[in-house]
Structures are given as structure tokens and as C-alpha cells.
Design a protein that fits this description.
heterotetramer; A alpha/beta (503); B alpha/beta (320); C mainly alpha (316); D mainly alpha (316); A: 503 residues; alpha/beta; Rossmann fold; 3 domains; 17 helices; C: ABC transporter involved in vitamin B12 uptake, BtuC; two-stranded antiparallel sheet; 70% helix; binds adenosine-5'-triphosphate; binds magnesium ion
Amino acid sequence: MQPLLELRKVTKEFPGVRALDSVDLHVDRREVVGLIGENGAGKSTLVKILAGIHRIDSGSMLFDGSPASFRSPRDAFNHGLTMVFQEQSIIPTLTVAENIFLGREQEFLRFGVIDKRAMNAAAEVELAKVHLDCNPATKCASLDFAARQMVEIAKALSLDGRIDSDIVILLDEPTSVLERQEIDLLFEIIKELKAKASIIFISHRLDEVLQVSDRVYVLRDGAVVHETASTEATITGLHEHMVGRQLDHEYYRENKQRELFGESVLSVRNLTIEGEFRNLSFDLAEGQILGIAGVVGSGRESFARCLGGLLPPSNGEILVDGKPVRLNQPHQAVLAGFGFVPSERKSEGIVTGLSVSENMTLAAGDRFSRFGFIKFEQERTECQRWIDRLRIRTPSTKTPMQSLSGGNQQKVVLSKWQIFGSKVAVLDHPTRGIDVGAKEDVYELIREMADQGVAIILLGDTLEEVIGLSNSILVLKDGEVSAKFQAPVGAKPDQIELISKMV
Amino acid sequence: DDMTLAISMRSLSNPYHATFARGGEEFAKSVGLPFEVLVTEGNSEKGLADIRALIARTGGNVCINVDPNDSPDAATIVEEAEGAGAYVVTQWNKPDDLHPWDHNPNYVAHMSFSGVGTSKEITNALIDAMGGEGGIVAIGGILSNVPAIERKLGMEQAVADTDGKVQILDFQPADWNETKAFEIMQAWLTRYGDEIKGVWAANDSMGIGALEALRQEGKAGSVPVTGIDGTEAALSAIEAGEMAGTVAWDPMWTGGMGLSLCHAAATGAIDVAAEPHEHREFYGTGIVVTPANIADFRTRDASFDYNDYWAKSTGQIQYQ
Amino acid sequence: MESINWRALAPIGVFFLLCIVIAIFSPNFLSVSNAVRILNASAIPVVLVMGATFVILMGSIDLSVEGIVALCAVVTASLVLNDTFSANLGFWAIPFAVLAGGIIGAANGATHVFLKVPSFMVTLGIGFVCLGIATAALGGFPVRISDRGFRALTLGRTLGLPNGIWLAAAAVFVAYVIQERTRLGRYVYAIGTDEITARQSGVPVERTRILVFVLAGFFSGLAGVMAAAQLGQGHALIASGRLFTTITAVVVGGTALSGGVGSVLNSVVGVLIVIVLTNGMVLMGVPPFVQQGVQGFLIIVAVTLALDRRQLLVVK
Amino acid sequence: MTEKQKELLRNLVPIFTLLALVLGIAAFEPGFLKPANLVTVTADTMTLFLMASGATFVIMLGSIDLSIQAIASMTSCILAALLPMFGGTALLIALAGGATAGVLSGLVVNYFRIPSFVATLAIGGIMTSVAFWASNERSIYISDEDKSTWLNWATGTSVGIDHEVVVGLVVLATLSAILSLTRFGRLVRAVGSQERAVVASGINVNRIKFFAFVISGLMAGLAGIVMAARLGSGSPTLASEFLLPAIACIIVGGTAITGGVGSIWKTFVGALIIAVVRIGMTFVGITVLAQQIVFGLVLVIAVAMTIDRTKVSVVK
Ligand SMILES: Nc1ncnc2c1ncn2[C@@H]1O[C@H](COP(=O)(O)OP(=O)(O)OP(=O)(O)O)[C@@H](O)[C@H]1O
Ligand SMILES: Nc1ncnc2c1ncn2[C@@H]1O[C@H](COP(=O)(O)OP(=O)(O)OP(=O)(O)O)[C@@H](O)[C@H]1O
Ligand SMILES: [Mg+2]
Ligand SMILES: [Mg+2]
């Protein structure tokens, strides 16, 4: 049978990087193809080529058996290819309907003017496909992260029914910001879509990939290193192909979990932010890891941002080392000893215009300067030490931050607070969107931090992660604590237990 | 090399200066020398830099007729000219204590018009047109500008001379700008309405701006307006009975004669050091044009002889 | 249904507050005839901000306003019955002048997009070029319009209001429809919010950018026509001072210079606030030498009250 | 060529542009290359550079400072008014006046969260009023005696070098050091490139912005003092028409108007480019009617050449 889509010896170079190296890949009709690989392996580049964003340097692309080359996203769309981007690509100032049909308003034009009613009605149809219940005339700015992602998926699905030919939907890490329920919903949708579409699915969560796809490609350094049917693959096997070594049995480094803690560092008493969460109270000791579980809207994100000084509390008390602290501004939080790792790495975690070392010492700058003048040599040595220790892949300390892959960027963000010497690290989705190998490094780092006596508050990317890493777990539901679990090694609570308290 | 003749002034985009430059050009043609125009764009530093560049390029073999952007600039310009052996004549703006005779022979002369005197005359014309009494509103130039200050002073003196029959309802600067004057006039119509019996403007552009604001309300021609400069727009408005007067400066003469004098000094046709003070700092003739004399003004003989340097002078400059 | 966003109405509140304050000093302020004068004084700035708002919503800036207005005023004055040239096109001068504005706008947009030069510099440079052409074409003299009929474009009245106000109202209507109901309008928001995403969604970014500058050129061209009709002439300095009023009005109205947030209607309120402030200085009898200071102070107060700054994650 | 070499080359483009311009003019008029002339041109450029040097910090934040022209005029008035009474102390008072204006801008931007465009425009208005007040609405002359006693550091000549050039180089060195060697300078760059991340890292961003505005005010104040020294007077309009050229030379040098990328030496080169183009036109003998047009076009071309597009993802 002739594949719907085929790449032959496709190569793509960016200045200084060969992102794709002679890639052969095909997608059959009504097939879900999984694509995995470490950060920077070339996954996004590959699908961006299919979506008309990048052009190939050499090789060829066949669509339905004939050579194709898409000049623009619109061109690709007209040929039946559409993409859900890894970085959110929703325009918050436009409405849901406008976002879904952005760039494709022709069908709603009446004498050059957009018929908003028709557009909203059409959007309703698309939203129903993703079971998102919202008014298509609302601005996307008022939607939460996950809802925006569903809008984005709806945007891609709008291709279905608008085009006669076969369609291909490219999903680049669509699940990284979704919660379990929404992921399940997405997988339902994918199954339905399979009746009429082909899909490429990218994720760093290998279990997901195996669950949803028929066939899996593994990319490493821009080359396809492995191809297998999902039914024949195992997570450990795939992992090995991805990183070239075996998956650590101690994924969450439970052998390094501390059970004895130092002095109490943080006490939170009746902390409240109106409309977000109420009466949160707990104590945290040196070296203790507290996981916070809860669905979107449970208030856990706001809680983390509150400790980062980004959302002022409306009530309650926070004591660090027994002394009350004010957290109305991020710099107050930092002075009080908090280090906040935000979930939106691109906009809040890293300063793209600065170099690796400049990012690392951003918070702790005082230590690396005298009379305001930077002590460059000392800074460089210290940063190099951390780069080696955390195995951050970067040519030098001076490399611009934006040329690091996500996982490495995340390590830099974590090291920023290590270098500063925070007493309490607040980690909001520290492993969002980073590959398995990098994840292991991050887990290792979290354990090390705990070892050194840092108290850690963790909002995990997955429930397993929270369970695996934490000493104890707070479950939030509708802004209140619905349960507290102890999670010592060997007596970890299981997911079902937690979920029952979450919903 | 041929001596270069040049004119430096604010900009080419207003009729006064455009004519001023044309006067210079005419003279340059008459002696067959290269001619250049420099503009400051309202920026003293640029004005100075351009003059320096010109002096450097010509090696000092240059005559410049300058209308300095601001009075203090004159001192620096004279200094530059002296240093390089270039010759300058200044117009309108200079510090009171800077005198050509202290900088022989390079600082040839300073030409100006009596701001206070002519302003007093035009204000009297306005008062006459108002029938001798009532309130006037006055639009001034850029507050700190010397001609603006002098013209305002003259206007105030003329009003004071009426012993209270004429009052200044309000004074507002419109920075020589037509549109600003238009907007200020609109606000005045709200604030004073029919109390306004006359409009005084420190130049014609602003006068025309005020006139157009009056026109918008159907009041053009019923409230007398005066300006200063003698632009074609103002002259036509006087003929149409919409303006009560303006003062014509004759920029053709200041442009041409300033250069002529400068050239004469540079070529040795006159020995400036030997000339009396009244030939070094003098007023030109400002003609007050009103509906009564506009016909005569239009038909007057405006030509002049480049070698009769002081024919149109109306005396040595007086300092208040 | 979403509840009414009261915060969005704040600029209008500030406008009325200003009016009340001025009226306390000068009771005549609250007369119908003064309201008409304020609207009349706002007519040209309103037309200008229609274009400027689109440009700013896109995150760019247009500094060529004064140049385009002046050049188009000169074109207008030269094409109707005048004292310098022999043309006498009457109202047919309008399409030519507006078209001239559009062409300069296209030059702005094309240079910006194809040479990848920030709009700030392109429009600054092209603004100089326009002023230079207007000066050079006339050698510094104005072209005076002798066509009384043409001047009725702003001097005449319809239903008791000066025609200039109607023109401005029509411009607002057109701009509002473009903003809300056309692809161009939506694309402007998309690009202003996130150009990369917009591009990935298939928005023709380059074309939109150019079109927006063309549109701004059209509006500036129309403003040039109106300025010529209002003052009865065209010359290079006819628009001096318009640039900062225009941009200030857009920002005071609540449109963010970083793009993506704002609306042409906001800008109309912004113009009214700025014009009433200027008008109020004279009405309240503020001494000339402190006027700029008082105006600056009041602008800070007005913007503090009017801007919904929660919408701005960062203030630049 | 390695990435590093390419980077170096990109950084040198503004200098090559400057050299090309200088050589181009010299081809028409070899006298331009006389050392004395080059020194004069540089000296003539320094007030523009001083004004732009501090504003570079603000632009690197992604903000803008429109008050610099008003500040320079104001400090010239303060200096001229106070020199006869206080002698050298007047210099300090004038500088303090400039810094105070910066303080006000910083406060308004930070605490009222008003976009810098409007805030600095308003503060500029207030400074103009202060200038009118301090000068009693006219130009104030500085006596030759005061000038030679107190202002020789700014306008004198030593070993054939105009002191303006020395002042400019000292400022260039100092501000460059602040921008590239201090934590403050690094944070200015950081805020311009990704403000939210800097905030989340616990940096008091308000303080950074505040000091950037203060430096800008201080440098504008210094520019006003040097200008007053050169022209021998203070006047409320002394620095008129300086604002846009000052910002233009920042951008021509290659600093991004969107913030995050730039340096002081680039502004220095940018100022020289602008000055060389302007003065060069007089040297080459381009008729004044065409000068504005040529200047506008050269500005656009210069920026098209000098900006480093690898550092900014979208050109706005
Ligand atoms: N726009 C670009 N310009 C330059 N280099 C790029 C660009 N996009 C990607 N690259 C390079 O191409 C390589 C592959 O990147 P790609 O985005 O495809 O990785 P990925 O597999 O999607 O990684 P991740 O899991 O982090 O999303 C990277 O090493 C990167 O250096
Ligand atoms: N403009 C660019 N220049 C250089 N490299 C780039 C550019 N854009 C992306 N990359 C590289 O592409 C790779 C992946 O980029 P992408 O934006 O997909 O990463 P990410 O989302 O941060 O990573 P992750 O998948 O870990 O979340 C990274 O190695 C990044 O450095
Ligand atoms: Mg990717
Ligand atoms: Mg990723």
C-alpha cells in the first residue's frame, strides 16, 4: 500500500546544527505514528517541515505519492496538514472562534466583512469535538492553560470536514499542559479521528505514546534510530533507543529519599487568596519534599505563585524560620528564602537575551559583584562547576540561553536557585516538556537539593512524579485541602487513592 | 577660488525665510558667485555645525548672511567667522552686548527691525479698526523668542496708551504655529464670545489661524485681526477685508542687502572699521499695511540698489 | 453573556470628569457651541488616530504622520482652484490626495517589511522625505486655496454640525468596521499580540503589515485634505505638532504601544481627552508658562485613572 | 567563518557604515578628512551623543524617554540663571535638576504604571514649564567670565582636542562600563529582553527602571549644560528639535527599539553617523531643498545596514 506521507532522506540544517539528518519516515492512511526523542532530537523540526513552517535542505517529501513542498502553513493546511504547536499558539486577545479560524476566515466573509454569527456557530461545532464547553465569543485570555490547549486542538481538528483529500494532524507535545482527564479525552478524540485521518503524535511521556500510536519512530540527534510497532515496544526499550543507555530502575531516585528531616523551615497558616484557595496550613522541614496534587482549578498553581511572590495573599501567615514574612513582591519572596521555578519556562523562567551564566547568577548576583561590578572570573568558574555537575549541555557559559534545549534550560533555572541558596524551592511543573533523560537529571537534582537541606514544594507534571518524589502529599480540591498523605519509601500512596480525593 | 555666498536661517518652509533666501540668491546672481542656503531646522547646534562645515569647506572664503536660530548663537557664529577670516552679517537675533564694531572686520553688520516700535504701530491699527475700544485677545510667538518678546511688549505699550479703553482679555503663545492659533482662538470664542473685539497675532501665520477659526463661526471679517510679516496670505486677507493689518518687512531686501554688505566688506569695497555705528547696527523699514494703504503698497516700487547699502535703513538700533 | 467591563469605560469617565473640572472654572465650557467646537477641533486628530491605532495595535509606530498630512495638504491645495498652480479639480482632488497618502503608507510598509527595518526608523525617515518634498515643491511658500466650494468640506455645516465632524465620524465608522469585522482588523490584533504564532496560523504577516501602513496613509491623507480645507492652504508646516498629539491620544485612550490591546473607539476618547485638556488650559486661564507643566500633570492623572493597567503584564 | 567571528563582524557593521560615509564624503570634498575638521565634527556631535547616551539605557529596557529634550533645555536655563550667583555649584544644581526629572519619570512609570511614552512626555512638559519659570521666559546669557571660569572643561581646547570630545569619551567609557561590567547594566539588558522572568527571579525591576531613567535624566542634563556652554546661554528652547535625532542615533547605532540589545558605543557611532550625514550634505553641497529628503532616505538605509536582525525575532 502506498503511504499517505513519506519523507525520504530529509535533511535540515540550522546555523551550526544539523536538526534532521537523512530522515526516512512514512505515515499510512488512518495511522497514528508516535515520534519520540530527547530534547533537541529534531521532532519539532520534522513536523514543522510537514506543516509548511520550515523548508527542507535536501531529500524529498511525498504526499499521496507525489512530490510535495509546502510554502506556508496555509499551503500545508490546504493540502490537508495541520499542526498543534509545542509552544502554545493561541492569540489571547482574539476570541475562541477567531482563534480557531485564524488565517482561514474566507468562508465567513460576506462582502469582505466577517459574519461573526456564522463563525461562532461553526466554532461551536469544533468545540463540541473536543468537549470544551465555552462561549466561542469569549476572549482566549480568559481561558486557562488547558482550555487554550483544547482550543488549539479544536483549531487543528477544524480541518476535518473542510478538505476533500486525506488529512494529517500533527500533534507536538499536546499533552504536556493537560491533566489526566483531558488527556483521556484527547485520546478518545484521536481514536475517533483515526477513522478519517492520519496523526503524528509527539510526547515525552512514553506510556502515552505507546497507548495511542500504532507505530513509533525514535529520533536521536536528528536521525531515525529505531522504528517499531507499538505492540512490540516497551517503555524501557524505547528509552534505551532514545538515550542510548538503560533506563534507571530507580527512576524517582527513591533510594535517595530522606526520611529524617532537619529543623522546620516553613510554616503556612490559614493562607488564603480570595477566589483561588482558602485556609492552607502546613509545616515543612529542611530536606522535606512536599508534593501538591490537584486538578486544574484546584488552586495549586496560584498557591505556588503566591509563594513565589507573584500573587499577593489576601489572608493568612507565612513564617520562614519562625519569622513572619511578607510576600507581596517576588523580590520579597526571594529575600525570605523562596526560589520559584515557574511552569511557563519561556516567559518567566529564563531570560532569553542573557547567556547561560547570566541566567544562573540572575538571583544571586550580589555574590558575584563588588561595588556593583561583576566578578566575571568567579562567576564563570562557579557556573562552569554547575554546568558540569548538572550535565547541562552547552558549549560554554557564554552561550545565549535560547540556544539551549528545554531540558537544559530547566536545569539552568534550577541551578539559579541553588546558586542563590534558597531555603525553600517551589517547583511548578519542573519537568514540563523535557525528555526522559533530562527528567532523570532533574530528579537527581531535586534529591540533591533535599539532601542539602532545601525544603521543596513540588507541583508535579504527573501524579506518579509527585508520588515518586515526595515525602508527603497535600491534595487540593476546590481551593481547600481535601487530604494529606505520607509517602515514605515503600509505603507510597497509589494514584487511585489520590485521584479519589482530587475530584 | 570664488568666494562663496551663503544664507543661514531657520527653515525654507515659511514664506518669510523663503523670500529671504531668494533675496540672497538674486544678489549672488548679480555678482556671479556661488550661493548656498543653510537651515537650522530650529536647532541651534545644527545651525552652528553647518556654518562650521561651510567655513571649513571654503577655508573661510565665505560671506554669510545669518538669521541665528536664537540670539546667543550669534556670538558663537561671529567667533567662528573671526577665527577663519569669514564675513558675517546677522539678522534679527543677537545678544545686546555683541556689537559688530567689536569684531572688525569680520562681523560686518547686524540688521533688524524695531520689534517694539512696529508692533506698537500695528496694534494701533488694530485699535483703530476696533473703533478705539473693547477687548482684544493676543497670540504670541515662542515665549522666550526675542522678536516674540519685543512684539508682545509693543502691543502691551499700545494698549496701555489707550488708558483702559482697550483691554487685553488674554494672551496665549501659539509658537508661531497656525494650527495652535486656530485651537486657541476656538477656546477663546467659548470663553469670551462677543467680548472679543479684536485679535492681535505676533505673526501672520497665527493671524491666519485665528482668522480661520473665526471663519468657522461665520465671524471672519466682523472681528478685526492683525498679524506681522506681510505674507501674501495676510495681504490678500487685508484686501478681502478680513484682516486689519500686517507689517511688511521686505525680506528680499534683508536677504540681498545683507549679503551685498557682507560682500562689500570682504572685497574691500567698504572699510567697515571706518563706518559709523549707525551703519553697523541698523533697522530696516517695516511698513504697516492696512486696508487704507494696501493698494499703494501693492503698486510701490520695491526695487533697490545693491550698492546703496543704507538707503532703507531707519536708524541705529536702540536697546531698551 | 459576559458582564459589562466597567473598567473599559474608565476613559469616558475621565473625559467627563475633566469636563466637570473645567466647567467649574469656566461655565461657558458646558455650552452646545463649545461642544461643537471641541468636536470640530477633534475632527482632524480623530481621523489621524484611526490610522495610528491600527499601526500601534500591530506593535509598530508611525512617525510619518506630519509628513504625510503636510504633503497631502499640499497636493490637495495644488489640485483645487488655487493661487499657485492652474489645476481646478474641485472635490476630485480628494481621491488624489488620499491616494497619495496611501502610496506613502505603502512605501512605509514595504520598506519596513522588505528591508526589515523597525517602523520607528522607516516612518521617521519617510516623514522627513515627505516634509522635504512638500518644502521643495513649493520653495517654502504656501499654496492658497481660492475654491470656496471646496472649503465647505470643513467650513460648511450639515444638520447644524461642521462637515469636518461628519467626515471624522465616517472615518471612525469605517475604522471600526475594519477593526471588528474584517480579516485585516483581526490580523492586526493577532500580529500585535504574537507575530510568530500569527504567522504559524497562516496569517499573511507581511501583507497585513503593509496594508495597515497603507490604511494609516489613507487616513493621514484624508486628514491632510481636511487640514487644507480648514486652513485654506497647504504648506510643509501645516501639520506640525500633530504627531505627538496623535500618539498621546492613542495611548491615553488605552491602546498599548506594545500592541494587541486597544481599539479605535478608545482612541476617539483619547483624542477628546487631549483636546479638552488643551482647550481647558485656555478656558481655565492657566498662565502660559505653566501650561505644559499642568498639561503634563493632568495627562498623568488622566492616564492613571483611565488605563486598565492590569491588562498590561509589563509596563514599558 | 565561526559564529564568533560572524558575531564580531555584525557588531562592527555600524563602524563600517560610518567609515563608508566618511570616505564617500571625502571623495567629493577631500577637505573633510582634515584632522581638524574631523575633530570639529566629532565635537559638534557630542551634545547629541550625551543626550542619547543616557536614553540608551531606557531604550534597552524597551521603554522610551521623550523628556530628554525638555530636560536639556531646562538644565541650560538653571545653569545660566544660577552661574552668576552660585558659580560652580550651579553646575551641580543643574545636574541635580536633570536627575530629578529622571527620578520623576521613574516614579511615574513605576508607581502609576503609566507607559513611559506618556509618562516622559508629561514629565517633559513639566520640565519645559520649569525652564520657562527658571529663565523668566527668555534666553539668559552666560558671561564670558563665567564661561571661562566654570565651563572651560566643556568648551575649551587642549592639545588641539576640543573638550567636548573629551567629555564625550569620558561619558562613553563610564556608561559603557556601567552597561557591560555592572550587575545593573546586565539587569537593564535582562529587563529589556524578558521582564517577566527577571521579576520572577526576585529582582526589584522597579529599581532598575528607576535608575535607568535617572541616568537618562542626568545625561540629558549634562547635554544641556554642555550645550549652554557652547552657545553661551540658557534658553527654554535650547535643545529643541533634538529629541528625534537623539533617538534616531540610538537606533542607527544598532540598539533595538524593542529593548534587550544594544550598547553605548553603538550610540556613539550612531550619533557620528547622523552628524556625518547632516554635515556631509553641507560639505558635498547638496541643495538645502533636497537635504531633508536625502537625510530621511539615508537614515532608513543606515538602519537597514546597522541593525542586527539575528538578535530580534520580530521587527516591529
Ligand atoms: N529555528 C531554529 N533555528 C536554529 N536552530 C534550530 C531551530 N529550531 C530547531 N533548531 C535546532 O534543531 C535541533 C532540533 O530541534 P527540535 O525543535 O526539532 O527538537 P525537538 O526534538 O522538538 O526537541 P524538544 O523535545 O525539546 O521539543 C535543535 O538542536 C536545535 O538546535
Ligand atoms: N531560534 C532558535 N535558535 C537556536 N535554537 C533554537 C531556536 N529555536 C529553538 N531552538 C532549539 O530547538 C530545540 C527545541 O526547541 P523547542 O522550542 O522545541 O524547545 P522547548 O520547548 O524549550 O523544549 P522542550 O521540548 O524540552 O520543552 C532547542 O534545542 C532549542 O535550543
Ligand atoms: Mg520540540
Ligand atoms: Mg519540548
